[in-house]
């Protein structure tokens, strides 16, 4: 069985591709459960074990995939250390008082138009590098 970190690595590679559509992303993850239309995210029923919910936001002007938001089942997500071994160094980003502490990775890509930022939300408390990640947002950013 494939590990969660392998699955996330494949998703980052897939989302980095230059020409993908919303339906491509939905098909890669599972099936469309609810699409209220732009600007609201699509809820996707996933076929990936260990993932509780998946939502896909779109760029409002083009409708292209923007952020794939993943919430893991308890203790099913990777640790920050696992993500670091796959995606390289990270840095902490500012979050609001009601949000999880968050860390961002910028995996290298050979794609010309898109990169993917991996934003991990970690439950506050003990050593963050060994704490389980609760949420991950895979954000597609245009390469400038």
In brief, what are we looking at here?
Helices cover 19% and strands 37% of the residues. It is built from three helices and eight strands; from the N terminus they run ααββββαββββ.
Biggest beta-sheet profile? 8 strands, antiparallel
Instruction: Provide the domain count.
Output: 1
Classify the helix fraction into a percent range.
10-25%
How much of the sequence is in beta strands?
Answer: 35-45%
Give the integer mean of the pLDDT values. Answer: 91
Distance between the termini: 37 Å
Fold and architecture overview:
The protein is 19% helix and 37% strand. The protein has 144 residues and is of the alpha+beta class. It has an eight-stranded antiparallel sheet, with helices on one face. It has one domain. The mean pLDDT is 91.
Summary tags:
single chain; 144 residues; alpha+beta; 8-stranded antiparallel sheet; 3 helices; 8 strands; 19% helix; 37% strand
Topology:
Blueprint: H1 4-15, H2 22-29, E1 30-34, E2 42-46, E3 51-58, E4 65-72, H3 80-87, E5 90-93, E6 102-105, E7 114-122, E8 133-142
């Amino acid at each position: 069985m494939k590990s969660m970190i392998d699955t996330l690595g494949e998703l980052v590679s897939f989302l980095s591709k230059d020409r993908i559509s919303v339906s491509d992303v939905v098909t890669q993850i599972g099936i469309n459960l609810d699409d209220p239309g732009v600007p609201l995210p699509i809820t996707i029923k996933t076929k990936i074990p260990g993932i509780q919910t998946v939502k896909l936001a779109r760029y409002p002007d083009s409708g292209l995939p923007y952020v794939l938001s993943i919430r893991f089942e308890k203790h099913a997500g990777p640790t920050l250390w696992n993500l670091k071994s796959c995606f390289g160094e990270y840095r902490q980003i500012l979050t609001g008082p009601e949000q999880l502490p968050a860390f961002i990775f910028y995996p290298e890509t050979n794609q010309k138009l898109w990169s993917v930022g991996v934003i991990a939300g970690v439950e506050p408390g003990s050593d963050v590098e060994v704490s389980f990640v609760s949420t991950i947002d895979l954000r597609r950013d245009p390469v400038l």
